[in-house]
Amino acid sequence: ELNEVIRQVDIVITCTGNKNVVTREHMDRMKNGCIVCNGHSNTEIDVASLRTPELTWERVRSQVDHVIWPDGKRIVLLSEGRLLNLSC
């Protein structure tokens, strides 16, 4: 199950076609530097839940953002969670 392995992985690529497959709870559990990207539909990663005052967004370059937690942990979000093959 995703909840069990999410802390260990270096990259998460969605390709299910379902909504909110990767939730804020999952992203809170990810290790520092985890790369998150979407391979199917724009709703698979709950990007809206990352747009809160407690998290900082840092544009690294076109289509690459760091989302930074208060403790300094960051995930690398590609294409703001949109379809990777159409944007990067």
Automatic annotation (TrEMBL):
Residues 1-88 form the S-adenosyl-L-homocysteine hydrolase NAD binding domain. This is Putative ahcyl2 protein. GO terms for cellular component: cytosol. The lineage of its organism: Eukaryota, Metazoa, Chordata, Craniata, Vertebrata. Belongs to the adenosylhomocysteinase family. It comes from the Eukaryota. GO terms for biological process: S-adenosylmethionine cycle.
